[in-house]
Write a structure and sequence with these properties.
The protein is an alpha+beta fold. The protein contains four helices and nine strands. Helices cover about 20% and strands about 25% of the residues. Strand 7 (about 120-125) and strand 8 (about 130-135) form a beta hairpin.
Amino acid sequence: MNRFLYDAEPSTVPGVRYFARSVLYESRDKIQEDLDSVFLDVPEGEEREYRVYPEFAWSAAYCLAGLYSMKYPGQCAGLADACVEDQVDVIIRTKAASGGFQELIQCNRIGVLICQADSLHDARCKNCGQIESMADFETLDDLECSECGGTEFEMSEEM
């Protein structure tokens, strides 16, 4: 969690390289409290899971695995290096509705990095006909119409 920038805390943790252009809009202390309570009784070595919702200035792959870590190696960490240094496995799923794409980024604790991008799917609001974008990790039940607020959708064949 220390590798993300925080909106209310523009500086990073001293000595920790951060992910470029990747911002969390929750407080660092709140996230740490959540982590402490979620993992309180989890034995060391047991798999753990925690979700965060950062915003990326560009695609997540570009911010986490792109040129920033090569251009600013003292400040920015690439995801592969961070996973090795922190000994964590991560799965990142993103949805960029304005760009019409989704990403699946996976990296393990030995630094094997896989980045995939694909188009979003279209779903039509049954109430007003508005088209909304849907990622592979979402279901029709996850959607809300930006036009009428409806929550009933069907898959659309339109591109």
